[in-house]
Amino acid sequence: MQSKPKGLKVLVVGAGIGGLAAAIALRQQGHEVEVFERSRFANEVGAAIHLTPNANGLLKRIGVDARKYGAVLTEQLRDYNSDGELQYTLDTSLISGSWQHEWVLIHRAHLHEALKDKAQAPGKGTPVVLHTSAKVANLDPHAATVTLEDGKRFEGDLVLGADGVHSVARRHVSGKDVKAFSSGRNAFRFMVPRKEVLEDPETAHMVQTNGTVLMWHSADSKVVIYPCVNNEILNFVCIHPDTLTNEYVTHGWNQGVGKGTLLDAFKDFEPGVLKLLNKADPETLKIWPLLDMETLPQWVNGRLALMGDAAHPFLPYRASGGAMAIEDGLSLAVMLPGDLRREDVSTRLHLYEKARQDRVLQIQEYTRESGRRHVGGKEAAIISSYIYDHDEWDHSSEVLRQHLWAQNKQVYYRQPTVFGPMPGPRQDFWGRSRAAASSKTKFCTASVRLKTSRTLLKNLLPNASYSFTGMGSVAYATFSQTTLDGLDWLAGGGYSHFGLYIHDVQYKSADGQITEGSYLPVLFEDLVDPIISGREELGFPKVFSTIDVNRRRHSYHVTTSWRGGVWGRLSLTGLEETSQEEQQTNGATKTPPNLLLHRYMPCVGKDQKGIPEAEYPVVVDSAQDLTIVPSRITRELRATDAKLEIDGLDWNQLPTLHHIVSRLAEIPVYEVIEAKVVEGEGVADVSSARKVEP
């Protein structure tokens, strides 16, 4: 038995930036979320982070405003070589207009505070349950369970491994213990009060401007300084070859190191930089290895998905590690809406992987290349555009839409296709049949069957493969007007159509196969929706015309026009209701003949005029249509007199229809064979229409 959608139980291993962002977004989607964090967040002091436009926009989407937590607007980037020569200055205000969201700089501890506040505060969804000092010992990707070191076991509908570069969850996806390895670089990090730098005459000029990111680079080392905490604190990241400091490094994040080691690693940089580095507090100066990892072939196993550094560790270039974790978290929320069934979780986790992998792997390569050499100029601008111009919520939403549309192959697509399958008379947006609703639709048809010129009607057949089944100089045709009402696909509304049906026509294929029916050369309709669906999906020769019906007790009058230019009148008078016995005698209850159409789609291009993109016959099987949507006549009225008048007018009065109507006006009425009005329920959806091989 399938489970009822009611919100899922989500277990998140790791309360880093990505884990908390995912928890908030999933909570807001209607899920119950518990987060397990091994630490008490003490490791989130003493460092800052960029929130680039792609990341900041996602945080705003879930209600996290970094500016309220001391985030600083990035206003300028200045890049120097290690000798202090300015390479370029970028005023970000000149390009910020191309981004919907700001690029800001924030203390990691303050960002975590913002995320924790949002996760646990009252608001949309159930507040997140956060377990700290909760070290995960084991988890089951198929049962979606998490077991802590103290033996406590938690059950959920899915598990997210957001536990960083030294992930416990990773081995349950990869099947082996995939370890991160050194990238060949280590980094010092520390913070200095900006006031201290401003009070030093030798360094004050470097940090005069608010929101300025300063960078100095040599062939193998880099110093980056930027403000946070309302421009009051300066964050330092000093990247260098690991051979200079490996003796001080294990695999931790909070390893202390002496100031002399820092100054020695950057001894070849300009004196001003060394003056800044000398302001590091030895008590808070830390060093950590910059780790990389082999690419995981998959991030998902059963109901476990990896995210952030657990799936794809980033080097600290291009400000993308935290941003990619945030993007992962919100992508997961898109793929896991509140009404998702438990049995669909694994499929959606794989869809998250599909949505994210290519982008993440590309940006990882950008960061690796930025670590190998200095990347600047146009190349850097192209990379920045790729990273920062992206909105993962919108991207993942489109991936999900395409996935959902692809689940049902029996759907109609027609222009504009980018919005998905097109609802119409035969199906709703999701491809579900409207046949049941169509059986309740009401119709009223007024028709005049007449004897006329065979030669003239033959001129309305598309080509020599079409012909009449019989012989003689006369042929039969019907002018018919139908009003439909109560159409499900038009929200209970309706429309009218008026057409010419040429009877006793056959189409002969190249292999000699004969297909018989009544041929429809033109059908006028007074609503654009059925015109488009009929032309594009089925090949009907539909065009627009205003159709007015004036009905009285014993008469029925139809007027057709185009913007005031009346071109047709059909009148049936002396209407009297017939009995069921008379209807059977008159053949009213018989299955109507098949319908023949000729589909034509022109090529695009002025040099392709008169060349079809597609051209072939179409047959509508009337008997089959009746098995799909049964039709029932509720009333029939026969006329004692009928009159048909068609005037081709001119090109000025009928600028788009004159060539059609003038040909119809040529049809002589030798004799009116039958004139009647038929009312009933059940309108064929014409889903039996099929291509006839030429």
Automatic annotation (TrEMBL):
Pfam families: ADC (PF06314), FAD_binding_3 (PF01494). This is FAD-binding domain-containing protein. The keyword Plastid does not apply. SUPFAM superfamilies: Acetoacetate decarboxylase-like, FAD-linked reductases, C-terminal domain, FAD/NAD(P)-binding domain. One of its GO terms (molecular function) is lyase activity. Keywords: FAD, Flavoprotein, Monooxygenase, Oxidoreductase. Belongs to the paxM FAD-dependent monooxygenase family. Residues 9-363 form the FAD-binding domain.
